[in-house]
């Protein structure tokens, strides 16, 4: 039997996008509504940022708290994942909301160039974020923008700084970072399997590469990420009408590769997460 596919939906991101696509959810209410539609379409994991009313990113724990509460009430069992990415604050501000104990949080284990800036993840901050995740029993999703980040995650796991099997997201197609390259992805997957045979992984592509990475991930036994954070268009010309529409696109692709979307129970088992609170 093939492994069911965990579909992650990254609903909003941290870059002001409303002018590019009015469907990008900004307010907490819009985000809850959009997540529920994506959940009903087949997503089992939601990756979250929060925004101020002017769309600027924030790590305000109160906003995150209202968002998590809404999602837990409206999407039973859905895995919640908070971003600790660099746009929503500096230094430890990026982990200010981890006390809310989402199921997961993103953890970039190294620095990389982004389109117009350095995504700065110094070793002491990475260690501190990982220690907060251990403290609140949050599973990290390692954001791997490059090979060294995979080795760094494995070293942190060996040192007891990351608990349990690794879950790594391979990100391809961010300008100035790793391009979309099939042979490199296959090498990443083999390397991760060598470093941690129990590891799971997701492929994430940007823009039209979102579908390319979804296809490769389905074929190679990985999981998929989609959503308006990474792609405001379904293809070169068509605006994505919603996060749910992007999830439906991945659900349809699953069938082409003999896969099916995971249920929330399966997704939690695959990621070694505790069952959803009832
Ligand atoms: Zn994000």
Write the layout of secondary structure elements.
Blueprint: E1 7-10, H1 28-41, E2 45-48, E3 50-51, E4 57-58, H2 61-74, E5 79-82, E6 104-108, E7 112-113, E8 118-119, H3 123-135, E9 139-144, H4 147-158, E10 167-172, H5 182-195, E11 200-205, H6 209-220, E12 223-226, H7 243-256, H8 264-270
Parallel strand pairs: 1-2, 1-12, 2-5, 5-6, 6-9, 9-10, 10-11, 11-12
Antiparallel strand pairs: 3-4, 7-8
Helix pairs in contact: 1-2, 1-7, 4-5, 6-7
The structure holds zinc ion.
Brief sketch in words of this structure:
It contains 8 helices and 12 strands. The protein is an alpha/beta fold.
Which features would summarize this protein structure in a list?
single chain, 278 residues, alpha/beta, TIM Barrel, 8-stranded parallel barrel, 17% strand, binds zinc ion
What is the CATH T-level topology?
Answer: TIM Barrel
Supply the helix-strand structural class: alpha/beta
Global shape? globular
**Largest sheet, described in full?**
8 strands, parallel, barrel
- Between the first and last Cα atoms, what is the distance in angstroms? 28 Å
Named CATH architecture: Alpha-Beta Barrel
How large is the count of helical segments?
A: 8
CATH superfamily: Aldolase class I
């Amino acid at each position: 039997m093939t492994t069911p596919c965990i579909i992650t939906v990254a609903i909003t991101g941290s870059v002001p996008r409303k002018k590019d696509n009015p469907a990008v959810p900004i307010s907490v209410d819009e985000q809850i509504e959009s997540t529920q539609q994506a959940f009903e379409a087949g997503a089992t994991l939601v990756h979250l940022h929060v925004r101020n009313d002017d769309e600027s990113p924030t790590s305000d724990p109160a906003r995150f708290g209202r968002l998590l509460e809404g999602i837990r009430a409206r999407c039973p069992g859905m895995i919640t994942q908070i971003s600790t990415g660099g746009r929503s604050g500096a230094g430890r501000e990026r982990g200010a909301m981890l006390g809310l104990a989402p199921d997961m949080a993103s953890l970039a284990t190294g620095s990389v160039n982004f389109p117009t800036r350095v995504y700065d993840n110094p070793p002491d901050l990475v260690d501190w974020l990982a220690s907060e995740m251990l403290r609140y029993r949050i599973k990290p999703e390692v954001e791997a923008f490059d090979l060294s980040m995979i080795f760094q995650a494995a070293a942190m796991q060996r040192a007891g700084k990351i608990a349990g099997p690794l879950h790594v997201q391979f990100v391809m197609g961010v300008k100035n970072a790793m391009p979309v390259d099939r042979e490199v992805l296959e090498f990443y997957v083999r390397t991760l399997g060598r470093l941690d045979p129990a590891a799971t992984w997701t492929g994430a592509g940007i823009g039209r590469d979102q579908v390319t990475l979804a296809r490769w991930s389905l074929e190679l036994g990985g999981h998929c990420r989609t959503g308006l954070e990474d792609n405001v268009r379904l293809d070169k010309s068509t605006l994505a009408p919603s996060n749910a529409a992007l999830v439906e696109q991945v659900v349809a692709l699953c069938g082409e590769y003999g896969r099916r979307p995971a249920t929330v129970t399966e997704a939690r088992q695959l990621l070694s997460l505790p069952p959803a609170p009832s």
